[in-house]
């Protein structure tokens, strides 16, 4: 055998081996070949299945017919083929218009093939279907965006230094982003708390990967009180170890203050969230244990059923209810307090947000609802409001600041003294007293004791409009804030003028 024959044999064997390797690779990969202008020359079965057509059916078509119009018309798409024609290897993700119905996302590697003169004669594409991964990512991102829209969010490193915060959190505490990033979480707590062992243990637990939730008293800019229902979530890296902490919080300061005004004390807000997911038609996909416990169902009793199972039948039949789900299907966010019906028929009130979850194209795919149980709060407030309404109907009531300035009064009080509300708001309580009494030590002592939080009651002589005598059986009740400090004074009174006059007349009759 000549050297030339041997060389030819070696070349044939090398080509056969290379061809075998290419064929083996193509059996496990979706592969297509294009002209430098993007005309499809050949596609294997895997690629044809990926785009949803017969292999012979796409030969000769232009690559741009496989992608969405917005991709085909983009500058990035033009740049892609310009670079391929220049000989550059490229990778990227693309949205195909799948002929089988719907869209598919693929991750492609593009390899230009050159002739001996260095000219690109064709382009080979190796593609991988990443549709499921894209959908899972969009679902996760949608849930995160829903939480960011509805809650205050702040991030820390494992030592408690602030990495970032969203606008909801910054608005809540009154700081700008530059004022908090890089500083320690202790800027939001009292000095005593920051130095406590509990606070050190708190960050050690987070650093060890423990989840911490509860209700927390914090301080905003200027020392303002902020109460948060919050969850501290250690975020794990790919090695399974924590590398930062994300805190999701709900502002409950207003509810705290309202309950203190009504009851003089603060009750705990529910410590966990109830979560349930629906498709766009309102069919239940899944729910967490907190939601199931709240409504009294098992998972298999609600999955596949419609949201209306939790709604009063009269409400579910109204056009507003249908409109509610139509708006959610269009991607509109909803937040409010809602009345719902548990499995045993009992009434449940929740403070909830309905959050449409968007796919990779920004289209709603399902709805996630985050909820807090506020049933006890609603019943308690209704009872307290009812009691206050009963008192308001039967007694004369007036409110003062701690200096004795009038803030408001009910109709019973106004009728008793003969003034309108505009005539007394902002004026001092002394307008109802004689000049002699208003200048006395007893009068100054009355307001000093009230400012100290002391309760005073008795029968008091007061002056109505035009100086007429009014006698009141009254109680002056200091109202305390969240820290037990007096913040205003409420006076409850009965008009006993006629009774006093009768007593005076009887006392004036000779024995």
TrEMBL record:
Gene source species: Paractinoplanes ovalisporus
One Pfam family it belongs to: PAS_4
Boundaries of every PAS domain copy: 153-183, 275-315, 397-427
Protein name, per record: PAS domain-containing protein
Annotated PAC domain residues: 90-142, 334-386, 451-508
PROSITE patterns in UniProt: PAC, PAS
InterPro entries assigned: Bact_Chemotaxis_MeTrfase, PAC, PAS, PAS-assoc_C, PAS-like_dom_sf, PAS_4, PAS_fold_3
Superkingdom of origin organism: Bacteria
Signal peptide start and end residues: none
Database matches in Gene3D superfamilies: PAS domain
